């Protein structure tokens, strides 16, 4: 396993371990950040969809800005990366 | 470079993106000295500061701390020495005193860092079992919080504060009296 993969795994497991008692939106934040870390791993491994992944990463960061602040805006912004994923070959 | 104190308070922001500039131990020692000058209940001074500045160890701590962002070059664990608390403190020291002492020390440290143009972030989202093991923190130290430290990569705006009228009460906490 490479370092980045171990980092992602540790991030997922420690997030699951630590989320009880945290504000509910921290769950969304952790999932977004885990997705971001996974995208970076794919990019480092020379994924053929590098450009599309970069766009998805940007959309996730845009959505992240209103995570925990404005739920409806967050849901709306999250549709973009969902659709971008749908288009991914 | 030192800044006016009122500016320091404004300037301290939670940093979540660091450059890879290393921070010298002399500077870190100054920050810990500033932390030591914070008040402690019964002047207990039961805090202990475990500084990780070895990048391999720092990386491990970050890996097991989902709340840490932005690759800090230094992580400082603030812990309470419960052996000393049991000897010299009281039940209340364990219940809340030490935690408050640690928070006050951490704020001093973060302000001293801001005064030197450095960025910090208080961190509570970490896995205590893993962090204690990585930093070889003995069982009788209670981990209170982590503080990340380094040079901020960018300046971040302060998250909005509530209007003063909402948080300030004169002479009475009764809202009808405001
Ligand atoms: C006790 C405590 C725990 C915190 N834990 C985290 C954390 O795990 N991760 C993080 O990114 N920020 C953490 N923060 C930073 C807060 O999110 C931050 O102080 C707040 O949003 C206000 O921003 P400012 O510090 O820039 O003024 C913590 C702050 C405190 C006081």
Question: What does this protein look like?
Answer:
- The complex is a heterodimer of chains A (89) and B (178).
- By secondary structure, chain A is mainly alpha-helical.
- Helix content of chain A is 76%, strand content 0%.
- Chain A contains 4 helices and no strands.
- Chain A has helices spanning 3-18, 25-44, 50-64, 71-87.
- The two termini of chain A are 26 Å apart.
- Chain B has one domain: NADH Oxidase, CATH 3.40.109.
- The chains are: A mainly alpha (89), B alpha+beta (178).
- Chain A binds chain B through residues 6-7, 10-11, 14-15, 17-18, 22, 26, 30, 33, and chain B through 63-66, 69, 125-127, 130.
- The complex binds flavin mononucleotide.
- Residues 13-14, 16, 67, 69, 121-125, 145, 158-159 of chain B line the site of flavin mononucleotide (FMN).
Rounded to an integer in angstroms, the radius of gyration calculated over CA atoms of chain B is 17 Å
Q: Spell out which ligands are present.
A: flavin mononucleotide
Q: Which of globular, elongated, flat, extended, rod-shaped describes the shape of chain B? A: globular
> What is the CATH topology descriptor of chain B?
NADH Oxidase
- Tally the beta strands of chain B: 4
Percent strand of chain B equals: 15-25%
Low-confidence stretches of chain B: none
The CATH homologous superfamily of chain B corresponds to NADH Oxidase
Average pLDDT for all residues of chain A? 94
Q: Let me know the average pLDDT of chain B.
A: 95
From the coordinates shown, what is the CATH architecture of chain B? 3-Layer(aba) Sandwich
Task: Assign the CATH class of chain B.
Answer: Alpha Beta
User: What distance separates the N and C termini of chain A?
Assistant: 26 Å
Give me the strand/helix succession of chain A: HHHH
Got a strand count of chain A? 0
Stretches of chain A where pLDDT falls below 50 for ≥5 residues? none
Structural class of chain B: alpha+beta
Quote the beta fraction of chain A.
under 5%
Content-based structural category of chain A: mainly alpha
Q: Count the helices of chain B. How many?
A: 7
């Amino acid at each position: 396993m490479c370092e980045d993969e171990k980092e992602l795994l540790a991030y997922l497991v420690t997030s699951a371990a630590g989320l009880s008692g945290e504000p509910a939106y921290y769950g969304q934040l952790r999932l977004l950040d885990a997705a971001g870390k996974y995208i970076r791993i794919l990019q480092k491994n020379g994924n053929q969809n590098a450009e599309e992944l970069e766009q998805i990463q940007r959309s996730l960061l845009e959505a992240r800005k209103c995570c925990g602040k404005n739920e409806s805006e967050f849901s709306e912004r999250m549709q973009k990366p969902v659709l971008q994923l749908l288009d991914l070959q | 470079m030192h800044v006016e104190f009122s500016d320091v308070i404004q300037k301290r922001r939670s940093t979540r993106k660091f450059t890879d500039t290393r921070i010298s131990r002399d500077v870190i020692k100054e920050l810990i000295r500033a932390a030591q000058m914070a008040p402690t209940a019964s002047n207990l001074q039961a805090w202990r500061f475990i500084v990780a500045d070895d990048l391999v160890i720092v990386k491990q701590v970050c890996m097991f701390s989902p709340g840490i962002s932005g690759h800090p070059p230094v992580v400082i664990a603030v812990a309470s020495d419960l052996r000393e608390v049991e000897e010299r403190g009281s039940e209340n020291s364990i219940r809340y005193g030490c935690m408050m002492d640690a928070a006050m020390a951490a704020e001093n440290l973060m302000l001293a860092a801001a005064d030197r143009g450095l960025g910090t972030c208080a961190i509570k989202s970490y896995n205590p079992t893993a962090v204690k093991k990585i930093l070889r923190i003995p069982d009788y130290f209670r981990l209170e919080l982590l503080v990340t430290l380094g040079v901020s990569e960018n300046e971040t705006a302060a998250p909005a504060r509530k209007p003063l009228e909402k948080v300030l009460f004169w002479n009475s906490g009764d809202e009808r009296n405001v």
